[in-house]
């Protein structure tokens, strides 16, 4: 009876970073709760595998090869989700990249890869999907962050900075979108 309160039948969830790990686990849990799933990530075989697992649960699924660091690809991801599944009700930003390296050894390219994947990717996904959610007048955004958003860790400067940014972005969006 209690689980009926958590059913997502008729809802569509877009899971960025849903090809493996925590993103895949979340995508499958949402499908088990009744949601149709758009799975987005950079690796085609991983998103196809997740989409097949979602379909095996009796839900609709679409696999969208997307680099969350590229605005055009992110907008296409959102638009294709709506075109193929009819709407977006839930956005899960789980695409992420870690880097364990001493601060003085991090190259600018490595720094940008982590920041662009974790923070810029979350920003771009929220903007692209936010257009649809705001037009519908409802929806949920789930941005994955880390305890390291609040405390540093040795050899984790880029990751900690990116997740701290995601935390503050999420707080700011909650004030704008759900006052």
TrEMBL record:
GO terms for molecular function: oxidoreductase activity, acting on the CH-OH group of donors, NAD or NADP as acceptor. Pfam families: adh_short (PF00106). InterPro entries: NAD(P)-bd_dom_sf, Sc_DH/Rdtase_CS, SDR_fam. Belongs to the short-chain dehydrogenases/reductases (SDR) family. PANTHER family: SHORT-CHAIN DEHYDROGENASES/REDUCTASES FAMILY MEMBER (PTHR42760). This is SDR family NAD(P)-dependent oxidoreductase. It comes from Tectimicrobiota bacterium. The lineage of its organism: Bacteria, Pseudomonadati, Nitrospinota/Tectimicrobiota group, Candidatus Tectimicrobiota.
